[in-house]
Amino acid sequence: MNRRLVILGAGESGVGTAVLGKQRGYEVFVSDFGKIKETYKQVLIHNNLDWEEEGHTVAKILNAQLVMKSPGIPDNAAIVQQLNEAGVPVISEIEFAAQFTEATLVGITGSNGKTTTATLTYELLKDELNVALGGNIGKSFAEQVSENRYENFVLELSSFQLDGIKNFAPHIAVLTNLSPDHLDRYDYNYQKYIDSKFRITMNQTEADFFIYDGDDSEILTWLENHEIKAKKLPFSLHKEVAEGAYIKNNELIITLHNTKQTMPLASLGLQGQHNIKNAMAASTVATLLKIRKATIRESLERFQGVEHRLEKVLKINNVMYVNDSKATNVNATFYALDSMETPTVWIVGGVDKGNDYSELLPLVNEKVKAIVCLGVDNEKIKRAFGNIVDLIVETAGMEEAVKVAYKIAERNNTVLLSPACASFDLFENYEDRGRQFKEAVRQL
């Protein structure tokens, strides 16, 4: 009998799962509540898959044996609740695809830095291993599993993807850090969000590894109160660790199985404390997977970061324009503002996911000369910073925001897009937002 697999959401993860499901003998039906992008539609048609858009036919969904839900669909969506009541298992793409590969899996999650860390890890591995990058970044994990040509995967994993796992167990798990994010999806309960991130290690065994920020108080508190089976490897900027990574005398030191590797910090291509941490996490993974020290060092020197993360766009009239569209929460913006070395015109705003802006106040006071709001509702931003920034301007779209910033900025200033919010009010996603920013800067 063909098992019936229903897929909710025909984006990257949904369409990848559909292709893999059909390949593995499932009867597949894809249902999207919105419109399906033309590129994805063509893949569905090409693979002779059954699909629908702009609505769910409940009868064709509830008769599934298994449902893969795209990470963007919340658990409280009506169709998901109906599936739960009917007792149909609802899982994520990561859970579905993992059962069809024997590859070594590296899973990377965290509130910030996970894209940079995952991309950097992939860069460190790719010269010596047969490896693919996927998950919340690039091509879907499921689609790449269907190609059946990779022995290793580096997966960037969001909390939403981890919410939908049951047996998924990466050989190496990385937790970059924790700070409040997506609280709108977790009943505004930070503890629920933290527990969701730690699902990355729940199925690991004593033969697996858990790499984490040993300076992060939330991570340390959770580990004090919960047992995990995997071998713990912290990385720290402030203390020496017996096994893991730390900094001493401006060198990055990695200790594993009683052997030490060192490399000078000055040679890192990425600067800033958060990037040193990303490099520590990635280098620990590479060392575990027996990548040569020279390869690790060369890759770290070469790596210049990822698009939309503190990406220098252009210098115009001695004003640097920086695209940090990927900063979708307060903590990410904290890193961005912290790295600013000249007076900054800060473009901020979007869909607020329960943000607390108070931790930014000292940095904004020190670094920001003007705020340009970019969102449908900016009241919270104006309330938070109205007393410490003299000039706050509201704008209706990216082009206007960039033009206003251009007028305000003076020589040797920086214009920083670091929204601290999700992008769905005015943009498709943070990539679209970042590209629109870059285009608007080039049009100046």
Largest sheet features = 9 strands, mixed
Helix segment tally: 17
Estimate the helix proportion, in percent: 25-40%
The residue-averaged pLDDT reads 92
CATH architecture of the largest domain: 3-Layer(aba) Sandwich
What's the CATH superfamily of the largest domain, by name?
A: Mur-like, catalytic domain
Strand-residue fraction? 15-25%
Q: Looking at the structure, what is the overall shape? A: globular
Give me the count of strands. Answer: 20
CATH topology of the largest domain, by name, is UDP-N-acetylmuramoyl-L-alanine:D-glutamate ligase
Distance between the termini: 61 Å
Structural class: alpha/beta
Number of domains: 3
Question: What is the level 1 CATH name of the largest domain?
Answer: Alpha Beta
Poorly predicted ranges: none
CA radius of gyration:
22 Å
Strand order of the largest sheet: 7-8-6-9-10-11-12-13-14
Set down the secondary structure blueprint.
Layout: E1 4-8, H1 12-23, E2 27-31, H2 38-46, E3 50-52, H3 58-62, E4 66-69, H4 78-85, E5 90-91, H5 93-98, E6 104-109, H6 114-126, E7 131-135, H7 141-147, E8 152-156, H8 159-163, E9 172-175, H9 190-198, E10 209-213, H10 217-225, E11 231-236, E12 244-248, E13 251-256, E14 259-264, H11 273-288, H12 293-302, E15 311-316, E16 319-323, H13 330-338, E17 344-348, H14 361-367, E18 368-374, H15 379-385, E19 391-395, H16 398-408, E20 414-417, H17 430-442
Helix pairs in contact: 1-7, 6-11, 6-12, 16-17
Main location: cytoplasm
Function: Cell wall formation. Catalyzes the addition of glutamate to the nucleotide precursor UDP-N-acetylmuramoyl-L-alanine (UMA).
Keywords: ATP-binding, Cell cycle, Cell division, Cell shape, Cell wall biogenesis/degradation, Cytoplasm, Ligase, Nucleotide-binding, Peptidoglycan synthesis
